[in-house]
Amino acid sequence: MSDVATRIDDIVRNKDVVLFMKGSALFPQCGFSSRAIAILDHLGVAYDTVDVLQDAEIRNGIKEYSDWPTIPQLYVKGEFVGGSDIMMEMFEAGELQQLVQDKQVARAEGA
pLDDT tens digits for 72-105? Predict the structure, then answer.
C-alpha cells in the first residue's frame, strides 16, 4: 500500500463518519460538497471532513482508494458509501438514516 493509501486508510478506519470533500464543513467549495454536508447535518451525526483541496496526494489518492472517480466521498465506519448523489438517494429512501443507526454512529453534540 502506498504512503497516501496508508494515510487514507488510517483516516477512514479511525473516524466513524468521514467526508472527503472540497473545502470545509463551514465553507464547502462546490455544490456537491455543500449538499453532502447538508445531508450529514440533517442526520445529526458526528462527522469529520478532509479538505482534498489542501492535499493533492489525498485528492488523487482517494479516487484510487475507493475506485470512485468523484469527490465528495462518504465513509461510515470504514465502509465507502458513495458521493453526494448516492447520499441524496439513500437519504430520500431512508437508507442513510438506517445505515447510521445500524452502525451506531454517534450523534452530533446538540443533535
Answer: 999 999 999 999 999 999 999 999 999 999 999 9
What are the chain's domains? 3-102 (3.40.30.10)
DSSP for 31-84?
HHHHHHHHHHHHHTB--EEEEGGG-HHHHHHHHHHHT--SS-EEEETTEEEE-H
Report which of 102, 101, 62, 103 is spatially closest to residue 82, judged by C-alpha positions: 62
Q: 57: which 3 cell numbers?
A: 496526494
pLDDT, tens digit (0-9, with 9 covering 90-100), for 40-56: 999 999 999 999 999 99
DSSP tag of 106: P
How much is the pTM? 0.95
Q: Is 30 one of the annotated binding-site residues? A: yes
